[in-house]
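=== RUN LOG ===
request id: a7f3
mode: sequence -> structure
chains: 1
length: 250
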Amino acid sequence: MDKATCPPSCGTGDEKEDPGAAPYGNFINYYTFNPPENRLSLVPATLLHELGYSDDEATLILDVGCNSGELSVAFYKHLVPQSEGNQRRGKVHLLGFDLDESLVQRAQQTNPLQDSITFITLDITENTEQLKVYLSEHGCSRFHLCLCLAVTMWVHLNHGDTGLTQLLSRLASISQHLLLEAQPWKCYRSAARRLRKLGRSDFDHFKTLKIRGDMADHAREHLEKHCGMELIQSFGSTAWDRKLLLFRRK
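=== RESULT ===
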């Protein structure tokens, strides 16, 4: 398999045996093989302005599956330059979460913008109460921008078709804009192969998944037909041949 299009993050297994493997995508060395600039190079630094968010209003960003936080911090700095005269500083807040407590602890310890960026441990397939509390604390009903980057496959493999559609619906319900990067189907096959190579059983749902093929298009269809969102822009594809799609609540 071409590593440029199906990288180590397609694999899975016990990260203690293999630091490039993790059953939920919670890789301990993720940003060594997929550095933040792979995404940031496609996203304009003026994105918040282009979406209509002004410098004098609070803007909330949610990063789903933040891992150890490097992309969260880089994304924030990309959208909110840290110059002293920047009026947007202090107005934009980012909440990143991951189900892996050790990764979240690392993100918290290395966070250089603690007044603006918060990291918490959360499994979005089980509970979103912490997200509602965060929104309430900031006087908002939804996040202005939600980042869901390379997360959908892991929810799909571990929680089935229903888990995938519930994830998309849940994110749409709490977001005004959603930036989505869905792993292509070839990465599902690679993840299953790697699991077998480690002598493990297949993912519980892999063979019974009915949602297959063009995963970005399946996600778009669900968001548009069932979640009241519309695709407003594609930022092209990453070096790993994954589309970055931006949706807006209608």
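=== NOTES ===
Residues 1-5, 8-17 have pLDDT under 50 and may be disordered.
The beta strands are 59-64, 92-98, 117-121, 143-149, 175-181, 229-237, 243-249.
=== END ===
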